[in-house]
Design a protein that fits this description.
This protein has 222 residues and is mainly α. 57% of the residues lie in helices and 5% in strands.
């Protein structure tokens, strides 16, 4: 299978570097994690969905299934009635990739952007943007807890709402670096009821992080 080949090559490359005595930097580790996640989203998740959906067709209440996988050990599956998975576990939601729709160029930064589809950059570029954003936050003398909280919101929590709005993949918010584009995303989320409720639950950290990211882009640091 393609997935096995891709993951095998990725892990073999990492093993080769380590056996050669070369240290994998934190930035490289992050890029490897992004690549690994991308492969899992595109090749493994559709298979899991296809297997699970028929088995759950008779269930009429919302549930959360958590699959705990450790290499070499049996898979553990946990069930919860809790519907907010972001609060149940500290994890990045993974969604399958739908068929791509043609993008429409935005005419303004208002919420009337029609069927506009944002154009994300690569994970590698997002990693560099994340690094610059962290530097920007530190230059403003924000506490490390604030830096980590905003970065986590932009990388892990906000993307699932962007994915729902645009029927796309839950890429890191740092994949979006066009100022006009990010303003459209913010405006749409600001008028989205589900996002508003979650934002209040998270003490408005998500909206604050988005506003700070827009300021970062306005300064031209990206």
């Amino acid at each position: 299978m393609y997935i096995m080949t891709s993951l095998k090559k990725l892990y073999e490359a990492m093993k080769t570097l380590r056996e050669a005595g070369l240290t994998i930097s934190e930035e490289q580790e992050k890029q490897i994690s992004f690549l690994e996640e991308d492969i899992i989203k595109k090749d493994i998740l559709p298979v899991i969905k296809q297997a699970i959906e028929p088995a759950l067709k008779d269930v009429q209440r919302e549930i959360v299934l958590v699959v705990d996988y450790k290499p070499g050990e049996p898979i553990s599956v946990s069930l919860s009635r809790k519907t907010n998975v972001s609060k149940l576990i500290s994890a990045k939601p993974i969604v399958d990739e739908p068929q791509k729709k043609p993008a429409v160029s935005p005419n303004n930064s208002s919420g009337n952007s029609g069927n506009y589809q944002p154009k994300p950059r690569s994970f590698a570029e997002a990693t560099e943007t994340t690094r610059k954003f962290v530097q920007y936050m530190r230059s403003l003398n924000h506490s490390e807890s604030t830096v980590n909280g905003y970065t986590n919101a932009l990388e892990n929590h906000i993307p699932r709402f962007i994915a729902k709005l645009y029927n796309g993949s839950s890429r890191s918010t740092f994949c979006y670096t066009d100022l006009k584009e990010v303003r459209i995303i913010y405006d749409k989320l600001d008028h989205n009821r589900e996002f508003q409720i979650a934002n209040v639950d998270w003490h408005r950290e998500m909206s604050a992080a988005l506003k700070k990211y827009i300021k970062f882009l306005e300064k031209g640091f990206c």
